[in-house]
Design a protein that fits this description.
2 domains; two-stranded antiparallel sheet; 3% strand
Length: 162
Amino acid sequence: MYLIGEAKGEHIRAILIKQAVRANIATIIAGGLVFVAAYLDGFALIDLLINHPFGAVCLALATLSIPVLWYCLNLGQVLMPRLLAGFQVCLILVAWLWIQFPVVVKIADAEHLTLQNSRAPEATIYVLGWALVVGSGLILPALFYLLKSFKGNVPLQAEPHH
């Protein structure tokens, strides 16, 4: 989905559009299998989503955006399919968080993990915070250079002298 705008040439763009539609279909099937697996495991996930107003709205919006996504792909648009794909992912994640909150992980026959009872010690959070800051300072410039290199704005090697 996200590579379509980077394609050089219509033939490659057409291939990427076909792959994007196939990947979207595979994602829909995998999502359906999640509901089936949850049902077989005794967890009524679909009931939770449908019976919760916010979950139902998120699920409906994500589902209704699928034909719009495919239509935009067929028109050859670049930005709208990217936004719609991200929109779908965000809707599903927000719906899941909303219907589960504050529980993060449900454990059968044990205390569920919540945001409050699974917090790391203060010292761990402090060290992790600094590790994220230092790591970001090292990784983000390299990522920026990588993106610029693949966009063709930074020479990958010196031009040969003739």
